[in-house]
Amino acid sequence: MNSTALDQYRLLGRSGLRVSPLGLGTMTFGSDWGWGADADEARRIFDLYVDRGGNFIETSVNYTNGASEQMVAAFASEKRQRLVLATKFTMARDPATRTPVATTG
User: Range of 75's domain?
Assistant: First the structure.
């Protein structure tokens, strides 16, 4: 079996950033959609990934109504200098209700 260690970093395009060969997607961090990892389970997943050398984490304000992004922010706070965080920004949201806002073009 051929495996890749999470700490065998690769360059991210021409950015100069060195990232893990496998990123941690966090779409299922939070159970706001009726399924997914609660905060304790999400923390366990996050810590296992980072403790094994992972440093590339992807999230979005749209995942589990923003719970994923909030959890990642809390989990990453003490390890921020070691991590590369990627987030999506493609959908406008109403800050008061955290729901999508229709835009006109």
Answer: 18-88
Q: Do residues 12 and 20 lie in contact, with contact meaning Cβ atoms separated by under 8 Å?
A: no
Distance CA 55, CA 84 (A): 6
Q: Which residues contact 86 (CB under 8 A, 6 or more apart)?
A: 23, 56, 57, 58, 59
pTM for this entry: 0.81
How many C-beta neighbours within 10 Å does residue 80 have? 9
Active-site positions read 63
58-76 confidence digits (pLDDT tens): 998 888 888 999 999 999 9
Residue 94 lies in a domain: no
Would you say residue 93 lies in a domain?
no
Total domains in the fold of the chain: 1
